[in-house]
Amino acid sequence: MSLDESALDHLFRTARTPEKWTDQPIPEDTLRALYDLVKTGPTSGNSSPARFVFLTSQDAKQRLKQGLSQGNIEKAMTAPVVAIVGYDPLFFEYFSRLGCDPDLRTWFASDVGLSEETAFRNSSLEGAYLIMAARALGLDALPMSGFDASIVEDTFLAGEGWRANFLVCLGYGEPVETPRAPRLPFDEACRIL
């Protein structure tokens, strides 16, 4: 069953990355509903390596500020929530609870490079699910990569042993006035073999 045109518009065609945020807060139950959607998205072998830290307080966002590139400070400081999309390098320790093939744990545990690559790739997928789930719930999302990962990890993730992938500001954006930036056409970006 395909989504109707209005749903496709809402998720993709007319959805925009906000430039400014309204003051409307995001309640905790919305963040929980958001994760409940995200966690159902597919990952390699159900590995589910993504970990999310939702910064909702001004104190938490102020601690993030030191790790942001100059162009991202205002966007993040004014967003109701900044989500750190991270990953657990030891994601394979949860395989028994996630119903994964028991032999996979040994495979990943014995190959740090494979584990790191798998965790990063699949947490990127889960971060994309976060953006689309946010749109589905009526939120706007602004992904950003302009930050110092070591500062974010030391400040927010070190106690868990998680690593930072990227950030997503969440909230209710003010209408975007600028035209959408161009995208590559199918024939330049795709091949059918």
From TrEMBL:
<dbReference type="GO" id="GO:0035527">
    <property type="term" value="F:3-hydroxypropionate dehydrogenase (NADP+) activity"/>
</dbReference>
<dbReference type="InterPro" id="IPR029479">
    <property type="entry name" value="Nitroreductase"/>
</dbReference>
<protein>
    <submittedName>
        <fullName>Malonic semialdehyde reductase</fullName>
        <ecNumber>1.1.1.298</ecNumber>
    </submittedName>
</protein>
<keyword id="KW-0560">Oxidoreductase</keyword>
<feature type="domain" description="Nitroreductase">
    <location>
        <begin position="20"/>
        <end position="172"/>
    </location>
</feature>
<dbReference type="InterPro" id="IPR000415">
    <property type="entry name" value="Nitroreductase-like"/>
</dbReference>
<dbReference type="Pfam" id="PF00881">
    <property type="entry name" value="Nitroreductase"/>
</dbReference>
<dbReference type="InterPro" id="IPR050461">
    <property type="entry name" value="Nitroreductase_HadB/RutE"/>
</dbReference>
